[in-house]
Amino acid sequence: MSTTTTYQYIAYTPQGERVQGRVEAPSEQQAEESLWKLSYTVISLKEAQGHGASLFGGSRVKTRDLIVFSRQLATLIESGIPIVRALQLLQEQVSSKKLSHIVGEMVVDLQQGRYLSEAIAKRENAFPSIYARLIEVGERTGNLELVLRQLAVYLEKEEALVRKIRGAMAYPGFVLVLAVGVVFLMLTVALPPLMGLFESFGADLPLPTRVLLALTNFFSACKFYILGAMVVLAGGIAAFVRTEPGRRLLDTALLRLPLIGRVTIQGAVARMCRSMSTLLQAGLSMPEIIALCVRTQSNTIIAAALDAVRTELLQGHGLSEPLAQRKLFPGMLIQMVRVGEETGSLDSNMETLAIFYEEEVDRAVAAMAGAMEPALTVFIGGMVGFVALAVIMPMYTLMGSIQ
């Protein structure tokens, strides 16, 4: 069996655009011939040093770009255009340079005899895990354009859900950071001259003013050390969260927070139900569906619970019972899964649950915003009120001493 080697190339397209990427071939001559078939003018071709399948495959293609790509590819296939030519047309049209390069590499793979699903699977870091598997199902059943449209709808729902959850998490964080930044500037820039003026009179200052004076002196003297400590602390937390224990600790904390935990769980369940509905309609087996659902979950605690469910599923325990043993999953999900197993309508039940929990996420996000806005208002108002009180009170004291 002949082995293939990965070659890295730099070339010009027929339109004069400079592109670069990787191509697999048994020899350098055959790699060059593959690029000639694309009408590329090769200016550099050498054996790649890394093992990655794509020069741009280390990060995920943006969901919006992938939605547009899926719809356009489905339209071209429905129009009777061969898949290779359709991809060549899309490579020239897509606005994302990353996706354009990846599509170009996929064209080379298809011209070498690979299926579209194989070309996508090679770039698993650039595409969602569910994407290649559903494309494979579409190729096997001859319904590739239908599967591409289903994927576009699925990705749109996924994007909308993620946007809602991120928006809910970002608002309170932004307000808190802004409030802390304003207080830091007040304590280090605006208030020191005023506090120095109060000290110069030598009068007895009220308690709020003495507290604010001590804070001002501390922050003024140590502001660079504080900034350095904040940067180091933020970097340390970011590095720790990237580790497996740190990620598990963060995910556990998110699930236990009263409002954020509810949004996290309902968002994860909505994503799982949406994935299961799409994959069941495609005809995949339940163990494989759960395995793909595990890979779509961003929370490691929920992913581990689903992986344990899959293990019990393979042992013949069904789906509803393993889900019921994990207190993480809502009761309505378990009941609907149980009914779906008994009636054979699990795919439609999952679709119903996906819609229900997406609406629940909307309500939970609204409730969280409604609860956090007054709390943040009281917090910021309290800080501003304390500073105002600490500044105004000594003025009356000094005026009395002057009289």
End-to-end C-alpha gap? 102 Å
Number of domains: 2
Report strand order across the widest sheet: 2-1-3
Q: What top-tier CATH class of the largest domain fits best?
A: Mainly Alpha
Q: What structural class should be given to the helix and strand makeup?
A: mainly alpha
Keywords:
single chain; 403 residues; mainly alpha; Receptor-associated Protein; three-stranded antiparallel sheet; 3 strands; extended
Please describe the topology of this protein:
Elements: E1 5-12, E2 18-25, H1 28-37, E3 41-47, H2 63-78, H3 83-93, H4 97-111, H5 116-121, H6 129-141, H7 144-201, H8 207-242, H9 244-256, H10 258-282, H11 286-296, H12 300-314, H13 320-325, H14 331-343, H15 346-402
Antiparallel strand pairs: 1-2, 1-3
Helix pairs in contact: 2-3, 2-7, 3-4, 6-7, 7-8, 7-10, 7-15, 8-9, 8-15, 9-10, 10-11, 10-15, 11-12, 14-15
Explain this structure.
The chain has 403 residues and is mainly alpha-helical. The chain has two domains: 1-127, Receptor-associated Protein; 154-403, Receptor-associated Protein (Up-down Bundle), CATH 1.20.81.30. It is built from 15 helices and three strands. It has a three-stranded antiparallel β-sheet. The model is unreliable at 50-58 (pLDDT under 50).
